[in-house]
Amino acid sequence: MNLKVLVCVFAFMFVSNLSFVCGQNEALSCNYSNSSSGYSCGLKIINPNGFNNFTGINGTHLIGMTDIDVLHVYKSLSNTLNIPSIICETFQNTQTIELTASGIQIIDEDSFQKCTKLQFLDLKNNKIRQFHKNAFKENSELAYLLLWYNQITELPEDPFSNLQKLVRLDFELNQITNLPENIFNPLTGLSILYLERNLIEVLPRNIFSSLQNMSTLVMHNNKLKILHSDSFGHLPKLDEVHMYSNQIDAIDERLINNTGINSFNLQSNLCVSKDITDNSVTRESMRADLKLCFENYDRIMSGCADGNIDERVCKLEGKHEEVIKDIKALTEENEQMRLEINNLAKEKQELEENILTQNKIFIAAITELEHQMFELKGCGCGCQ
Length: 384
Ligand SMILES: *[C@@H]1O[C@H](CO)[C@@H](O)[C@H](O)[C@H]1NC(C)=O
Ligand SMILES: *[C@@H]1O[C@H](CO)[C@@H](O)[C@H](O)[C@H]1NC(C)=O
Ligand SMILES: *[C@@H]1O[C@H](CO)[C@@H](O)[C@H](O)[C@H]1NC(C)=O
Ligand SMILES: *[C@@H]1O[C@H](CO)[C@@H](O)[C@H](O)[C@H]1NC(C)=O
Ligand SMILES: *[C@@H]1O[C@H](CO)[C@@H](O)[C@H](O)[C@H]1NC(C)=O
Ligand SMILES: *[C@@H]1O[C@H](CO)[C@@H](O)[C@H](O)[C@H]1NC(C)=O
Fold this sequence. Notes:
Elements: H1 3-14, H2 19-22, E1 27-35, E2 38-47, E3 72-80, H3 86-90, E4 96-98, E5 106-107, E6 120-122, E7 130-131, E8 144-146, E9 168-170, E10 192-194, E11 216-218, E12 226-227, E13 240-242, E14 250-251, H4 254-257, E15 263-265, H5 270-273, H6 291-295, H7 297-302, H8 311-314, H9 320-333, H10 348-359
Parallel strand pairs: 2-3, 3-4, 4-6, 5-7, 6-8, 8-9, 9-10, 10-11, 11-13, 12-14, 13-15
Antiparallel strand pairs: 1-2
One 2-acetamido-2-deoxy-beta-D-glucopyranose is lined by residues 34, 39, 62-63.
């Protein structure tokens, strides 16, 4: 490997304005191989200035193979501002493209235009700020579109118009504040939608109404304040909804009633924070208009089994003794408990005091509190 290029690439990781100096070393080449995912190009792309005037891709094919045999393009070494159209022009049959952590900032109209067979596109962990509204227009076979951990703040108008075969759309960990009302309408085949860890404040009422095949909606760690039942109504396959760590303080009573949702996780929302220390609250003591939430409490609780959360933590709801027992069990196994995204630091003192004095929960061995652990009580809703 060219040492100069290598040095340059490493330099990029630290000093971005070297781009200039290094710009002279634009390179685009493939290391071809036969792998379990088919004939593949391990792509080396050095293009920090975002040129789109490449005329070919270097590299030597395996004997008997040509550009049209390539089914899989993955990055082997990359630093590029954009995705030059030559990649899809060259490998028109590719079904998979994985260009993760490559510094990509822009997706153009022609980036994937010629990849009409594309099924799996993984662009996670880049710096994508914008993508052209027609970026995926020719990719009607696309089933997986992974754009998580980027810097997307705004979604273009109608960017998914031909993606009826999309099964999974992943926008986790971006900075999206706003969802255009019709944006998901074309995605009639979508099964899983990941929108967590964004800055979304409002859920337009009919935003999901076309997603008749959606079974899982993941929107935790946003800034949602209100949940309307008609945001979820009439979605026959919807089974699992993750809404924890939002700022929800109002929930339409019909929310759970109207759907077949089995698992609705509402931990760590505003409406529950006042109830943190009240582990012995009974259903009857809740506000009358919140009864519905508690009628469905078991179903809501079953939503606690999110991938990040220890299932035992989620079973803490219940009688006093059970709470104590479970926390003890927990402390034996986990001396140090992880703090998931939380704002506990400032409340910690108060929280500990309250739990210790009011509920006599043994927490001495826990050096850090899992925020969600104590909010489960409010896993229902609106306990102000
Ligand atoms: C391809 O290789 C040649 C010879 O090493 C080099 O001059 C050229 O810049 C390379 N082109 C690309 C696009 O990497
Ligand atoms: C090309 O790929 C093969 C197998 O995937 C690997 O063993 C080899 O080191 C790669 N060569 C270069 C120059 O990256
Ligand atoms: C692409 O355009 C840039 C800027 O105009 C130029 O420096 C570079 O040589 C061009 N590359 C090719 C392969 O034509
Ligand atoms: C690569 O794999 C294909 C399909 O399995 C096979 O037909 C071809 O001969 C292989 N080529 C090489 C060079 O190993
Ligand atoms: C809905 O999902 C199922 C699998 O869960 C799949 O077989 C079916 O084709 C999908 N329907 C649409 C309209 O994409
Ligand atoms: C919710 O469903 C229960 C039983 O299925 C019913 O008694 C109750 O009236 C419903 N509540 C609303 C607000 O629709």
